[in-house]
Amino acid sequence: MYHKEFEIRWSDIDANRHLANSAYMNFMSHTRMAFLMENGFGQKQLAELNIGPVVFYEHIYYFKEVMAGKPVTVTLELKGLSEDGMFFEFLHNIYNYKGEHCASCEMLGSWIDLKERSLTKLPDYLIENLDHLEKTEDFKVLTKEDTRRHGKKPQSINLSELS
Predict the structure, then answer these.
(1) Which phi and psi angles does 91 have, rounded to 5°?
(2) pLDDT in tens for each of the 163 residues of the chain?
(3) Closest alpha carbon to 97 in 76, 60, 62, 68
């Protein structure tokens, strides 16, 4: 299983003296990007394709506090992937130095064409590279409908009415 180990730094701790929410996010993002970079999704390759990753959501579930002084391990598994590679879902788990499960995060994302500013599919060779990542037991082939499965839709407001 793909994983990274992180030392807990002073700057990773919040006012309650445990791992800050932003540190969880940073560790998971670093783990994701390390996997992607090692599998053909480096800055140079993405620039050649003129694409970049976008995050639709990250749902974090906290189980146990993480304190300073001992490392954590962050794992990465593939929870879903669309046939054209446009949509992907990752599962991260965070474990303390004893192997105790401290947090879990489901992350859904896509790829954006940086010139057109619209979602885009992946070339076949990159889909294959993603498909090599260990899959969760509930892995599924994603569709566009999965991106709205939580029923959240944008709702604009009239800012002049807030005064």
Answers:
(1) -115, 125
(2) 999 999 999 999 999 999 999 999 999 999 999 999 999 999 999 999 999 999 999 999 999 999 999 999 999 999 999 999 999 999 999 999 999 999 999 999 999 999 999 999 999 999 999 988 999 999 999 999 998 888 888 889 999 998 7
(3) 68
CB 143 within 8 A of CB 88: no
Closest among 126, 58, 137 to 92, alpha carbons compared:
58
- Number of Cβ within 10 Å of residue 155's Cβ equals 5
DSSP for residue 23: H
E strands in the chain: 2-6, 51-62, 72-82, 87-95, 101-113, 118-119, 135-142
**Which token pair is 10?**
């002073």
Length of the chain: 163
Q: What tokens does 121 get? A: 């599919």
The residue type at 143: T
Q: Are 141 and 78 in contact (CB under 8 A)?
A: no
